[in-house]
Amino acid sequence: MGLPLDHRPSLASNMINTDPPEHARLRRACAGAFGPRRMRHLRERAQQVTDELLDAVEARGRGDLVTDLAYPLPIAIICDLLGVPERYREDVHEWSLVIDSADDTDDAKVREATDVLERLVTEVVEAKRATRDTDLISDLVAQEATGELSADEVTSTAFLILIGGHETTVGLIATGALTLLTHPAEAAKARTGPAHRAAVIEETLRLHAPLQNATWRFPTEDVEIGGRLMRPGDPVLVSVLAANRDPAAFADPDAFRPGQRAGERKHLAFGAGPHLCIGAALARLQADVAFETLLRRLPEARLAVPEEELTWWPSPITRGLFHLPIEV
């Protein structure tokens, strides 16, 4: 996630920026929100939202699978999880798009978007302090009241999950939909059941990792990386997309081969180890619902423009499409 956090405690006091044991404490604070019961509810909600969105596409006979599905579905789900009221969701969409699609020259725009979304999250957190509910922000506020979390940790964690919890899913749904549209044989297999859809999702994550580069890391002691000596404090940026297309790890790495990579290394789209993305299962869930419903309800869907005319986000951090127009 390419956010200019400026080391602001209200945004940077989250699990991405901490090591054990603080990392484990902050991760545990959110774990209940991603348990089996909540996931079952969110799957039902994702199905409801997806059906409503595709109703409109089907009625028109055309649509844009980015603006009509890949954005509104994850925003609805992550806002439901957090407890962000409906009135804020258009702002989340508008300003998240700025962050997601900005290139490395758009620093001022990204800072403005970050400021707006920080104020939004702060308002929601303050409201939850007065009237708690069963959502994740209410859970975090309750842990603040018992001294388990600081006020900055509550706001920072909510902000992280709001942005990081939907932007990668936007990219996954858009690129996965594109891949299914351009690989009809794989789309036909995906219609046969969840096993092949799961393979499609994993191969899409590998080939089009929504997070192209990980967050900055800094050695705490001298370490050699790729033949170069890195000193304490030197910045290190890991390219997830390059790792996922490493020919030493994956045969024919630029090919889309779902279900054909047994024995190869696992992709790193959601990280690995202690920092494995806490929302990975939720992203996969939404992609599965989106792809199953899309393939079932719009079996004749086709790209409305040549693939080479599609425009990818210029962001050095996140990978996704501006638009994916289809005819049905």
Automatic annotation (TrEMBL):
InterPro entries: Cyt_P450, Cyt_P450_B, Cyt_P450_CS, Cyt_P450_sf. The keyword Transferase does not apply. It comes from Amycolatopsis rifamycinica. Belongs to the cytochrome P450 family. This is Cytochrome P450. Pathway: Antibiotic biosynthesis; vancomycin biosynthesis. Involved in the coupling of aromatic side chains of the heptapeptide of vancomycin. Keywords: Heme, Iron, Metal-binding, Monooxygenase, Oxidoreductase. One of its GO terms (molecular function) is monooxygenase activity.
